[in-house]
């Protein structure tokens, strides 16, 4: 439990960690989508860092909050509370890695446990991670934003469509009921629908996660409600003053053809905060890289290399 809310973690604990990498998902904020990434990142860091993915409240298989809807701001508060509650006695620095489990060093399971950083965030998780970084500057050592969603893209038809649905309570309920109906079908039929319409290139793990967690009425309602609050907030400019102040501790990885984080946003960051580490992934992976093994492995290698480089400085 984090601030009385059930919280799903995906974690690999190091026996002798030198730092703790905290992974903040995008939207949907389902920690289990990052299983392959978390495992690969742990291995690439030589087992010397604990790695934890923290799921969003009520983006989970069980409706522990009884239908309550949570805004992006509340999800930010939740991540701050997690760090202050679970890592308060840790002397390790935190790395935040933000995107769109609980592990031990030998086995996989889910629970809430005492953790001891760096921060990584994916998609809207990059925005969330920056806000967490602002509030906990004395605890966060560095921040990595992966395929970041930091402001609205007015040229994106997909964003316009999602925004239209998310703003309508009636449409959001309809989409959530449809997702719930699909989730009630036979498992083989559910997997076929997910693979056909969501992820033809998804791994078996990602397909199973979508079937078990995403196709729930409460999860889809929270995904769309959070999206509505995201779109309202991201009409504003990012806090460029903060990014510039911490530019030597921040990195962003963009995709070549990603409407959530177009290269025009990379160009703006380079002008606003020229010392931020900026990279473009050209290997053909997508915004949803965590849903297949090749994407997870490549991005984990990128993050590990950035952390190792920063540690040498």
From TrEMBL:
Q: Which Gene3D superfamilies match?
A: alpha/beta hydrolase
Report if keyword S-adenosyl-L-methionine is assigned: no
Protein source organism? Urochloa decumbens
In terms of domain of life, where is this protein from? Eukaryota
Q: Which Pfam families match?
A: LIDHydrolase
Q: What is its main location?
A: other
UniProt cross-references to InterPro entries, sorted A to Z: AB_hydrolase_fold (IPR029058), LDAH (IPR019363)
| An MF annotation (GO) of this entry | hydrolase activity
Protein name as annotated? Lipid droplet-associated hydrolase
The entry sums up its family as follows: Belongs to the AB hydrolase superfamily. LDAH family.
Query: Any idea which UniProt keywords this protein has?
Result: Hydrolase, Lipid droplet
Tell me where in or outside the cell this protein is found: Lipid droplet
One Gene Ontology cellular component term attached to this UniProt record is:
lipid droplet
Record carries keyword Hydrolase: yes
Its signal peptide is: none
